[in-house]
């Protein structure tokens, strides 16, 4: 079996105003090196929670199970250590950072990760060259580099900024949490291309989406259906088409 | 004065009065304020009152050069250095439009301890007059102190004649456990502009009690900014009066308080004429056991119609033990004024912190980025680019 990303019986809860609320109730999931998997599931089923737990957000308490990445105990690492190891999360709702210049932020992140990976830091010129190449590919205006991170960005611009960060940080495992939501048709193609062009033996991804359309552009190796904190069904790309036509009912009933 | 309950006598006070020779009567009568004195409720002078503070001895050339060595100094402009309360040197030739003379006697600022203390003990200081219509550029005033159980009490007088302008960079630094008690009497003439940028990075064990009295004439602007960064107990106190129409006063600042230190920004902005404006943005970052104090009073006389006042003070608490005391105070007697004020206290945002860390940025660096972001709009109020840059680089949050 693959020892790239391996999640076993993962359980997590959150403290909701004093009462613990179980959200993940035993997730089993493996993503081999070089594969792209998709997760679909009703609102509130725990998809974003899974992405946060994998990237190290502290609000969630892991109460059971394990997650290993490249043979390491992922859950024992700090968020920045996970990033250095190659984990990247494109947030469902990217966070605004007033007062933090986007270009400075990107450069700080890129160099932090390069440092941790024993790579040479990029100087201002080299960074600018790298970032310009990526903004061009993503049809982003350079003006967005001068603004505060995500502040006043439109929904679509925020998502593009996430993909820009992903490309600059060169992860080996990216989680894209509804990166397609709020994108127009052209943007969807551009973002999909931004992911597809990373596809290769050293890049895996977990694509969380509600729309089969994205999966026409980023064709997944596997599709998982998540409900109530569990993966209830896994199959090939055709699962997305079935879901699009018939909804979740039959999957939920089969699992019940 | 009948304030027996709020003052105390102490070895410190007796030593000060002794040093003041014939000039200590007001100080003796006032005493060192206790926490029962309203103005000092959050800023206890107890430790300060128990020490016997001696006159700071003259420093050698080498000592002064050593103190100057690591300080953030702009290349441009003129420079005057005071060391242990004495004029040490005028390092660069002063701009021709700056006329330096011996300090003239000035009236005490009634009831304000820092001013009374200074009035009793001041011997030296800078007196600057910028001639009408001239731009005197940048003047760096470096006040250095070194020693233990010593105090300095500089008294400066800055006068800008009609239409004159000056950028004053007021740098405070030193080594040891001392008290620096500088006082400025500032007169900004008609249409004149004084940009007063202060960096207070006195020793971590020092006391710093600064008081500034600024009066601004028609169309004049006293544009001040202080970065309070040092001192075990440090107060920056501004008492400003807008004397004639269209005068402007800015009392902005940043305080960065760590360890067991206390930094205090206290101000009184007195609108005594119509059509004047005042702006105040103060941001305080507190960590460890740091304590911050903001006391900002805006007084608008009945005559001061069409006053436009703005006050904002915000604190960022980085530890659970840190504490901010803020006391905004608006006293308005005119009926046609626009005065807004606001205050916030908050911690770093967990979501923002996680976002940065998820991008590989280590926690300490992520925190630093967010602290600097919090300070950014205050720092942007430093209009002089060179000084803004210099302050920014001296921030160690
Ligand atoms: N901080 C929190 N406090 C309380 N409940 C929370 C918190 N975070 C998540 N939850 C709850 O956990 C459940 C799972 O949320 P999550 O965001 O993971 O769902 P999701 O599958 O990503 O949904 P969507 O498709 O709408 O994005 C929801 O019921 C949500 O309300
Ligand atoms: Mg979600």
TrEMBL record, chain A:
Keyword Hydrolase: no
GO molecular function, one term: ATP binding
Source domain of life: Bacteria
Key words of the record: ATP-binding, Nucleotide-binding
UniProt domain ABC transporter: residue ranges: 5-253
UniProt family annotation: Belongs to the ABC transporter superfamily. Ycf16 family.
Full protein name: ABC transporter ATP-binding protein
Lineage: Bacteria, Pseudomonadati, Pseudomonadota, Alphaproteobacteria, Acetobacterales
Automatic annotation (TrEMBL), chain B:
Any Pfam family the entry gives: SUFBD_core
Domain SUF system FeS cluster assembly SufBD core: 147-374
InterPro entries: Fe-S_cluster_assembly_SufBD, SUF_FeS_clus_asmbl_SufBD_core, SUF_FeS_clus_asmbl_SufBD_sf, SUF_FeS_clus_asmbl_SufD
Source domain of life: Bacteria
Alphabetized NCBIfam families for the sequence: sufD
Protein name: ABC transporter permease
High-level lineage: Bacteria, Pseudomonadati, Pseudomonadota, Alphaproteobacteria, Acetobacterales
């Amino acid at each position: 079996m693959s020892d790239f990303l391996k999640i076993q019986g993962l359980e997590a809860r959150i403290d909701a105003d004093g009462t613990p609320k179980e959200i993940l109730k035993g997730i089993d999931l493996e993503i081999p090196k070089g594969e792209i998997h998709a997760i679909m599931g009703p609102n509130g089923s725990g998809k974003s929670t899974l992405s946060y737990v994998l990237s190290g957000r502290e609000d969630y308490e892991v109460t059971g199970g394990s997650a290993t990445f490249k043979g390491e105990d992922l859950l024992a690492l700090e968020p920045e250590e996970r990033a250095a190891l190659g984990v990247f999360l494109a947030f469902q709702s990217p966070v605004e950072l007033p007062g933090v210049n986007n270009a400075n932020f990107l450069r700080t992140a890129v160099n932090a990760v390069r440092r941790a990976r024993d790579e040479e830091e990029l100087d201002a010129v080299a960074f600018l060259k790298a970032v310009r190449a990526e903004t061009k590919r993503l049809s982003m205006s350079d003006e967005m580099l001068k603004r505060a991170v995500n502040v006043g960005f439109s929904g679509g611009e925020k998502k593009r900024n996430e993909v820009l960060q992903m490309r600059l940080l060169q992860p080996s495992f990216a989680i894209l949490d509804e990166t397609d939501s709020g994108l127009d048709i052209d943007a969807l193609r551009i973002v999909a291309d931004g992911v597809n062009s990373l596809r290769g033996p050293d890049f895996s991804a977990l694509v969380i989406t509600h729309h089969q359309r994205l999966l026409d552009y980023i064709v997944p190796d596997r599709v998982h259906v998540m409900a109530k904190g569990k993966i209830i069904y896994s199959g090939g790309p055709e699962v997305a088409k079935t879901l699009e036509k018939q909804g979740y009912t039959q999957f939920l009933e089969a699992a019940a | 004065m009948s304030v027996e309950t709020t003052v105390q006598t102490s070895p410190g006070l007796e030593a000060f009065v002794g040093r003041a020779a014939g000039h200590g009567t007001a100080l003796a009568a006032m005493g060192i304020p206790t926490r029962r004195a309203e103005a000092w409720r959050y800023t206890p002078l107890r430790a300060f009152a128990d020490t016997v503070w001696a006159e700071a001895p003259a420093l050698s050339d080498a000592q002064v050069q050593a103190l100057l060595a690591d300080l953030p100094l702009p290349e441009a402009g003129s420079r005057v250095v005071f060391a242990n309360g004495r004029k040490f040197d005028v390092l660069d030739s002063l701009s021709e439009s700056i006329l330096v003379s011996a300090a003239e006697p000035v009236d005490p600022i009634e009831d304000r301890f820092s001013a009374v203390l200074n009035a009793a003990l001041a011997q030296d200081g800078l007196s600057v007059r910028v001639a009408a219509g001239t731009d005197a550029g940048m003047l760096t005033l470096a006040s250095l102190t070194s020693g233990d159980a010593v105090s300095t009490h500089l008294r400066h007088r800055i006068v800008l004649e009609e239409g004159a302008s000056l950028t004053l960079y007021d740098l405070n630094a030193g080594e040891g456990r001392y008290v620096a008690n500088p006082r400025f009497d500032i007169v900004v003439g008609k249409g004149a502009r004084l940009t007063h940028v202060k960096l207070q990075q006195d020793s971590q064990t020092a006391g710093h009690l600064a008081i500034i009295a600024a009066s601004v004439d028609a169309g004049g602007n006293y544009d001040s900014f202080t970065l309070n960064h040092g001192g075990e107990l440090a107060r920056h106190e501004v008492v400003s009066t807008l004397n004639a129409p269209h005068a402007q006063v800015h009392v902005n600042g940043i305080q960065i308080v760590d360890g067991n230190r206390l930094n205090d920004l206290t101000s009184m902005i007195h609108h005594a004429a119509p059509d004047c404006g005042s702006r105040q943005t103060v941001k305080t970052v507190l960590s460890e056991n740091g304590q911050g104090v903001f006391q900002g009073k805006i007084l608008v006389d009945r005559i001061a119609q069409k006053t436009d006042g703005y006050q904002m003070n915000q604190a960022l608490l980085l530890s659970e033990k840190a504490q901010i005391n803020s006391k905004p105070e608006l006293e308005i007697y005119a009926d046609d004024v626009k005065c807004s004020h606001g205050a916030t206290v908050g911690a770093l945002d967990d979501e923002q912190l996680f976002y940065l860390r998820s991008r590989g940025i280590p926690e300490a660096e992520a925190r630093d980025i967010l602290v600097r972001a919090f300070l950014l709009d205050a720092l942007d109020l430093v209009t002089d680019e060179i000084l803004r840059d210099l302050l920014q680089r001296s921030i160690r949050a």
